[in-house]
Amino acid sequence: MLFTEYNEAEVMQGFREEGYEEGVEKGREEGREEGREEGREEGRAEGRILARYEDGMTAEEIAVKMNLPVEFIRKVIERS
Questions:
Q1: What is the 3-state secondary structure (H, E, C) of 3-67?
Q2: pLDDT tens per residue, range 10-25
Q3: Is residue 67 within 8 Å of residue 75, measured between CB atoms?
Q4: How far is CA 67 from the centre of its chain?
Q5: Which of 22, 45, 61, 73 is surrounded by the most beta carbons within 10 Å?
Q6: 10's torsion region: left (phi>0), alpha (psi -120 to 50) or beta?
Q7: pLDDT by residue (tens digit) across 25-55?
Q8: What's the confidence (pLDDT) of residue 9?
Q9: Cβ-contact 49, 61 below 8 angstroms
């Protein structure tokens, strides 16, 4: 039988550090996924804005219909 000595404080510190690193990585992955979803939603909204603009609606009409700020609608139109 082999007995080894270990420092319990060091072992516990290692566990805490490992848990911290896992938590940070999980938080980053959740943040990336949330960002992707927000990007998809914004892309869909911009697509609807541009479709309505191409159908002849003004920025003001689109803003009222979509309940969005007129400035946002204008920026979308300008970027396209």
A1: CCCCCHHHHHHHHHHHHHHHHHHHHHHHHHHHHHHHHHHHHHHHHHHHHHHHCCCCHHHHHHHHC
A2: 888 888 999 999 999 9
A3: no
A4: 22
A5: 73
A6: alpha
A7: 999 999 999 999 999 999 999 999 999 999 9
A8: 84
A9: no
Q: What are the domain boundaries of the chain?
A: 17-79
d(CA 64, CA 59) in angstroms, rounded, equals 9
The amino acid that residue 32 corresponds to is R
Q: Is the dihedral of CA 67, 59, 57, 46 positive or negative?
A: negative
Which distant-in-sequence residues (6+ apart) come within 8 Å of 76 by Cβ? 46, 49, 50
Type of residue numbered 80: S
Q: What is the token pair recorded at 10?
A: 């060091």
